[in-house]
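Async update (no meeting this week)

Hi team, since we skipped the sync, here's where things stand on the single-chain job. The sequence we agreed to prioritize is pasted below, unchanged from the tracker. I ran it this morning and attached the output directly underneath so nobody has to dig for it. Comments welcome in thread, and please keep replies under the output.
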Amino acid sequence: MSRPIGKPSLPDEASIALPALPKARRPQRRGRRAFGGSQPIAFLYLLPAFAFFIAFGVIPLGQAAFLSFYEWNGITDRSFTGFDNYLTVFTDPKIRGALWNSAILIVFYAFLPISVALVVVGLMVRVRIRGQAVYRAVLFLPTILPLTVVAVTWRWIYAPDGPLNRAFDAVGLDGFSRAWLGDFTFALPALGLVGTWVTFGLVFVLFIAGVQKISTEQYEAARIDGAGVVREFFAVTLPSLRREITVALVLTITAALRNFDVVFVTTRGGPGTNTEVPSMFIFRSVFQTRTVGLGAAIGVVLMLELLIVNMAVLWYRRRGEVES
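Output:
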């Protein structure tokens, strides 16, 4: 049958060939490209810090661990003693007392400033205070001061004729006046309060920065639900500051366990051995009694103590994040 003239034939739908679309290219992962074999130059940026850590961290630590198994006076030949130095660390009552003193200092360096800073930050959420930048600068100043300067200043404050005793005498509380750094009961707490004064500014600034990241909607929702100051603190502020609290604990506990400058300048471990800390024993073992192996063993034990405590803090934070 002939096709009518003037009516062109249309192709069937099935016969229409659609142009082939180009295949979508999968986006490359920048992380894999940056740290993979295609760009090894990225690792060059880590070499200075890595070399510094190896030279001043890993190598001295390895040398201390090696010397801890020897009896050596720093001059003559070494003699292998095995674990005798470590047995001395855990059996000598003076060294155990120094370890106990460092544990007490953790309360003053870490838990006390963190607790006070949390209370102050919780109140500042409710009450607006003008001039916060000035307060932060003033409170953070002790953190950046050299610890030797801090120790000399507080030794003058705690002196028998120092400003603290004069203040007590001026208000009629002369019964509280004493030689604070020479008192067997109050010498260690007095040094601990110096640590509180030093670390409080750092902890406070950390918490202020953390609170500023909390959205106002969370506080408004809590207040709509009728939450008071205490409930608002435990429901909103405290959970939101989990990371900042972890950082503060790691920094302050480390400062407490490696404390040397303040003790050396103020009391040198006295009166008696009431303010002895492990770092003072390391100093005396290496530079005074010439028992380098024992000093190295104390240093290794102190390093392990720092590692265990900080790992426990980090583990507790990760556990809290998983549960939340």
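Quick observations from my side:
The two ends are 80 Å apart (CA to CA).
The CA atoms of residues 71 and 79 lie 5 Å apart.
Reply here if anything looks off.
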